Structures are given as structure tokens and as C-alpha cells.
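Worked example 2:
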Amino acid sequence: MNVALRTTLKSTAAVTAGRTVAKAATARFMATVAEEAEGLSDAAAYCIGLEDKHGAHDYHPLPVVLKEGKGTRLFDFLSAYSAVNQGHYHPKIIGALVEQAQKLTLASRAFHNDSLGEYAEFVTSYFGYDRVLPMNTGVEGGETAIKLARRWGYDVKGIP
């Protein structure tokens, strides 16, 4: 295994272990990751090392490097947390993706499109909601919550 990566993982585990008791679970996790990384191939260690050196440390991923999913029978319940849960390279999904991309890849919400209304009607009737606001990220959820709270404050509480 890549010595620099092993050293980085062990030092991260040591630093994390020195934090408060509330961080004990994270410290145990990082120590486990450092131990598991011992069996990585040089290629995997290289990829992880580059990401560790040049990437933001906002996630602490498992010591696994994915390259492709073609031909696998894998349900990846972690990829993008929601965007690839159906697995990788399923022929029907790839076909639908290509078919849609040949028509219209992305429509900004600054414009209308021919699918959003039908989708909104289906989702609201299925779940019994009045309206739906589809979003791509959690940031949009937070922004919308703030806008709704401000609107409630203006309309209900009379805040200027």
C-alpha cells in the first residue's frame, strides 16, 4: 500500500481520536479505515491519496475506489445518496437517459418544459399534496425553507 496514504490515514485517525468524547465514533471509524486501507492496491491508494491531498475533507468515504459499473449486478445505495441507487449501467436506464438527452438535456427553471406539469400533477395526486417543488440538492431545500418562513412571517405575523 502507498506509505503516504497509510501515514495520512493514521494521522487523521490520531487527530480525530484526540477530540471530544462526542467525536469518539468518528475516531473509531477513522482508525478502522486506516486499518482497512492496508489492503489497498497501489492504484486505489494513489486515487485516494490524490483526493485526500487536493480535495475538501467534507466526507470521509470508505477506502473503496470505483472505476466502472458496467456488467455488475450491484445496487449502490451510497452513490450520490439518491442519484444512482438503481445501480450502475442498467441497460434500460442508460437507454432512457440517452433518449432524453437526444431531446433535451436540461431545462432551466427560468423556462417551462413539457414534462414538469405532468410530473407535478402525478406526484401531488399520488401523495395527496397541494403542490410539489422538485429539487436537486439540499441547498435548495434550505433556501426554500427560509423563503417559506419569511413569507409566513410577512403574511401571518405581519412582519414588514
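The helical segments are 3-17, 24-36, 42-54, 91-103, 116-127, 138-155. The mean pLDDT is 74.
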